[in-house]
Amino acid sequence: MTSTVLLALDTSTEYCSVALLRSEARSAISESVSPRIWTRHELTGAVSSTRVLPAVRELFDEAGLALDACDAVAFGAGPGSFTGLRTATGVAQGLAFGLGVPVVPISTLLICAESARQRDPSITRVLVALDARMDEVYWADYAWDAEPGEWRALTPPSLGAPDTLVAPEQPFALAGNAAGAFGARLAAAERAAVVDHDALPHAGPLALAALRAYRAGRTVAAEHAAPEYVRDKVAQTTAERLAERAARSGGQEAR
Q1: Within 10 Å of residue 236's Cβ, how many Cβ atoms?
Q2: Count of beta carbons in the 10 Å neighbourhood of residue 196
Q3: Which of these ranges, 90-94, 163-167, 199-203, has the smallest mean pLDDT?
């Protein structure tokens, strides 16, 4: 019986998260068999790049698999830490080039939705909100379609102030750390049926979402893998800071 072996990487946060998934071929016999997943999820701060490849080797050794058994490499494409996204993209590209396999980019916000559903299978609607710093939130709205068993993005990954999130009318779970970061400013939290602060980017849920994407053919060649920053820039220019300061001063004088 053939199997699918998929490597998943996420360094979009302060964690270095790596998972190795092995799934038996889809058939009447194996359809109900859950994939086997090995993981490393470690708080590494800004040095995830030094831990990714050793973690990959550890997982293949633990699973008793050779690196060339890998069929695809998935990565958390973003949004998230710019440096972390570049790390995951570069490592995924390098491994995929060397192995001659495709890359599976997965939104980090979708990973959060997958994490929430893995923790509570009854969840079918997830509003994801992650602290984006700079007083903003990365967010997206996902619905789970039982057939064919996929997430559908009702609002794609977006960036905005905490009070700009559009909460669904029907019951939903709020996933991510934004509720804890912004408190009452994130009004959507008050309407959520469930608030899951721990549904965050993790290579385990990433691997499961990537397996579905891989089977559906949603892959890219290594050279086409790219981060999904969502935010166009990380800081104001000096001119923008001065202009904003002048505007605030002018407003105070007017009052």
Answers
A1: 12
A2: 22
A3: 163-167
- CATH code of the domain containing 45: 3.30.420.40
Per-residue pLDDT tens over the stretch 28-78: 444 457 899 999 999 999 889 999 999 999 999 999 999 999 999 999 999
What letter would DSSP give residue 220? Answer: B
Is 48 a domain residue?
yes
Q: How far is CA 11 from CA 124, 142, 227, in A?
A: 26, 22, 11
pTM, 2 dp: 0.88
pLDDT number for residue 252:
46
φ/ψ (deg, to 5) at 233: -155, 160
250 assigned to some structural domain: no
21 is in which domain, residue-wise? 3-108+201-224
User: Beta strands 3-10 and 15-24: pairing type?
Assistant: antiparallel
Q: Which tokens hold the place of 123?
A: 């969840």
